[in-house]
Amino acid sequence: MRNPIFTKLLSQLPATVPFVGPETQERARGALFDARLGANESVFGPSPKAVAAMQAVSEEIWKYADPTSFELRTALAEHHSVDIDNIVVGEGIDGLLGYLARMVVQEGDDIITSDGAYPTFNYHVIGYGGILNKVPYKEDHEDLDGLLKAVINTNSKLVYFANPDNPMGTANSAEAVQGFIDLLPDTCLLALDEAYIEFAPDGISPRIDVGQSNVIRLRTFSKGYGMAGARVGYAIGAQEVILQFEKIRNHFGMNRAAQAGALAALQDQEWIEHIRDQVKHGRDQIGEIAHDNGLSIIPSVTNFVAIDCGRDSTFAKLVLSYLVAHGIFVRMPFVTPQDRCIRVSVGLEEDISLFANLLPKALSAARSGS
Amino acid sequence: MRNPIFTKLLSQLPATVPFVGPETQERARGALFDARLGANESVFGPSPKAVAAMQAVSEEIWKYADPTSFELRTALAEHHSVDIDNIVVGEGIDGLLGYLARMVVQEGDDIITSDGAYPTFNYHVIGYGGILNKVPYKEDHEDLDGLLKAVINTNSKLVYFANPDNPMGTANSAEAVQGFIDLLPDTCLLALDEAYIEFAPDGISPRIDVGQSNVIRLRTFSKGYGMAGARVGYAIGAQEVILQFEKIRNHFGMNRAAQAGALAALQDQEWIEHIRDQVKHGRDQIGEIAHDNGLSIIPSVTNFVAIDCGRDSTFAKLVLSYLVAHGIFVRMPFVTPQDRCIRVSVGLEEDISLFANLLPKALSAARSGS
């Protein structure tokens, strides 16, 4: 009965999953992970004020959330010095990318991204029948010139990149990104994923200008704000772009406690300052561990570090497998040559210490090919 | 820049909202509602065990939720005596209906629903370019014969109805629904919305048979389980149908605390028994208030009651406006002749008392045409 009922596009799609979660891996190995350093979650958690807000609202969870996210959008608008109509809140950047793909992608459209960048963007583009044009990284950075050329060559309507980047942790400068924007044809929308921006130093994010109607910024409470499990993302853009989301989004998709938590988190910028310090310290620790093992790292401005395992993908996979098998959840980049690395999120002291103990054994096991 | 970037379909869609939330109305009137009886939320809240679970998980909200909702699906599968692969969890029934529309609806497809039924279903169908064929209610019940005829006449691939129904609160019998299913062509999928089933007596929901590959049941933790703000819905169906969701859904759309809360809520079936009694009592109270005011009600098996205001839509709107202006959030059906009614959700004693005090004044104001 499938073919007559489901769309032709759906029947052509694979039953793919952008990421296999750590819980699935835990069930497969029959034990919980001792350290959870694979999803770039913020182990430091959110502001205690955000936790308190979520706990308080749990008592009134019988109420639907405000479908307009009015209070949160108002606070975000103030935070970013834009108007409330320049902001849409959604179920994580993942959810917003899904909406965005639906808004833009028609079957057969050429869409531009970096090769090895965010699988969830790819998932949504393919899910709407788009054709992915992937531009290789350049020296472990997203290649803005290459992306721009690809846009122009394919007359693409949508280009995605993350700055700071994931999975490498590198960033292009605000000037470079602004240069890209200035040269981008106005027939192409840039989805600029700034999920990791709270960890980055100044000079990475170009000034927000909602007059640029072909740029949409994606931000999240999942990373710096430490609320990945809450699923609160938002987009900033020109009003005429943001309004398009109203036509298609799940207006009642947001969790009420999560919205309250995000508002409280936003209002506690001191916590973010504190996290920034913690994360910087954590990156330094990972760098030292890598160095102690004769490995180098890719300098990162995020809450994770790509460690160059010094050989090829096969070798890095062996290192990764050993770590995962022995209780440390980590991930690695998807494509060559970035997949010579493993990607380790900043952790608590005890997480990092487990990693420090295990990495030499993992390298040794990998060197012996097991 | 809109036209070259966004899809043709999107540019044709209105910026519509299925429901205006009470918070928006509160901002418009400059005061909070004294009683929230308009969205069929469960004022009695969820099981205290669910609240405790959500509060506990708020402490670890830095972790993404399990994208497979494994524990919750396992418990739901056991609860319904089906396999875990017969269950998909999503961001409320609203979210699942969005996915379902995407899976089935191609531009120009004829889709069948009742006239005056769930606006969010309509929103998603239109959002994917479907053409809604709306079948009138019959004596305040969804007209199963009419719906079946419409399916056959249009060769439709998708038909939706709710049982129990919203906004009238009536239900067709399990036998009648099963009769519909038995006669439904296998080229058409039935989306059977059972959001209110926990309030209904036995004999309303046909036996779940996941061998029926053209029936998908939609259930929720928003109503009986009292967790509307958590956004946890689920669908039960044949494995080959459920698997389709994996191709397109936002795998990381679920809130971690909400999943834990839903699991705890499901495990506390005593609470549901307790709620069922409370809701029955509440319906009786609303019936008495209507009766005291010389009005009749539509007998309901849900947590809300449609009160027949005894005249036309204009009159019912005046009654509704008075109530809303004076602090009671209620809603009313969208189409004639159901829009002779106002729809009042079961409330706490203090909510119902406010309503009892205000209804005579609202009727009086409406009769004087103000």
Explain this structure.
The structure is a homodimer of 370-residue chains. The mean pLDDT of chain A is 96. Chain A has two domains: 2-45 and 270-367, Aspartate Aminotransferase, domain 1; 48-268, Aspartate Aminotransferase, domain 2, CATH 3.40.640.10. Chain A has 370 residues and is of the alpha/beta class. Chain A is built from 14 helices and twelve strands. At the A-B interface, helix 1, helix 3, helix 4, helix 6 and helix 10 of A face helix 1, helix 3, helix 4, helix 6 and helix 10 of B.
Q: Quick summary of this structure?
A:
Two copies of one chain form a homodimer. The first copy, chain A, has 14 helices and twelve strands.
In DSSP terms (H or I, runs of 4 or more residues), the helix count of chain A works out at: 14
**Radius of gyration of chain A over all CA atoms, rounded:** 21 Å
- Determine the CATH topology of the largest domain in chain A: Aspartate Aminotransferase, domain 2
Helix percentage of chain A: 40-55%
Q: Largest interface, per-chain counts? A: A-B, 87 and 87 residues
Oligomer: homodimer
Shape of chain A: globular
For the biggest sheet of chain A, the summary is:
7 strands, mixed
Q: Which spans of chain A of ≥5 residues are poorly predicted at pLDDT below 50?
A: none
The name of the CATH architecture of the largest domain in chain A is 3-Layer(aba) Sandwich
The assigned structural class of chain A equals alpha/beta
Strand content of chain A: 5-15%
Helix/strand order of chain A, N-terminal first: HHHEHHEHEHEHEHEEEHHHEEHEEH
Q: Quick one: CATH superfamily of the largest domain in chain A?
A: Type I PLP-dependent aspartate aminotransferase-like (Major domain)
> What is the topology, as strand order, of the major beta sheet of chain A?
2-8-7-6-5-3-4
Q: How many strand units of chain A?
A: 12
